[in-house]
């Protein structure tokens, strides 16, 4: 065995840039094939019709063969109207650290200054950006950075501060197989899956909407015990006719992007659950309408066609939401690490902590501070970008099914 074969081979990094068109990659590899080199690494991107192709190959033996390959590659690049750079090195310098993460950045808009700040923080952490991929260009800009050389937890702590300073959303997740596997998505309902709070909509029929809204807001900020606040609010609903629940259901507005998210992820085998401090009379219908697999909420007591001002059974409170997530995951047969929880209020905190990825969606400050990441754009399907699914992939899947998916409408003021 030769000395060369006992160590990493000498390599050449060949980088071509220029206008993209069919046949570029095949022409380059036809040239490399004649030199009988081996491909060590390869990456190609196209941005606005401009191609960047990087190929790391073994270097041919001897100066003459090396010069011949260089001349052949340059001639091919010239014929293609492209620029080429050839850099000689030793070994595969592209080997990545075992500590790898996906850093997903969302902005409306996403400014160059914000990206510069994020990149600087990554560099300060001793990490490297190996690849950058656009996930969406509308209605938000979403960019996924493949980062190596720093622990995901450390990156999350460092970058969350910068995200707040720049007014952008940012998520850090380990680059592992869980991101690609089937997962369970568990969502809060009021002000997360739908706009507004159902209990306040019911309270409007009792003439006490403002009073109920004040208590709801304090409970969502974590200032009141949720179970006690729920009982006190429901007590104010005594006497409301059962027919009001039908009116409330017809008034519900699902948040922009919710149907797209459920439809797309169901195609990939994901399972969905809604866990709510609201009421089964609404959530069960909502789950059936959207194709959601599991639903858990409180049940309003109704006697002789009217609300009694009481709930039936155990209240789904902060601890109950986390318990539901664990039970649904066990029923499906996925580990808790493969769950995603989405919520906005203090009663969602235990559920967000129990999930593999806890997302604060347009949430109160106490929730944003505790969650793994915060999403503050008004489109629920933006969460799919955190899962590695691009808008182009979403639209292509919908097109195959005959569904047109325009940009989600702006949310109501």
TrEMBL record:
Its EC number is 3.1.3.3. InterPro entries: ACT-like_dom_sf, ACT_dom, HAD-like_SerB, HAD-like_sf, HAD_sf, PSP, PSP_ACT. It catalyses: O-phospho-L-serine + H2O = L-serine + phosphate; O-phospho-D-serine + H2O = D-serine + phosphate. It comes from Nocardioides fonticola. This is phosphoserine phosphatase. Keywords: Amino-acid biosynthesis, Hydrolase, Magnesium, Metal-binding, Serine biosynthesis. The keyword Magnesium applies. NCBIfam families: HAD-SF-IB, serB. Coiled coil: none annotated. Pathway: Amino-acid biosynthesis; L-serine biosynthesis; L-serine from 3-phospho-D-glycerate: step 3/3. Residues 13-91 form the ACT domain. Its cofactor is Mg(2+).
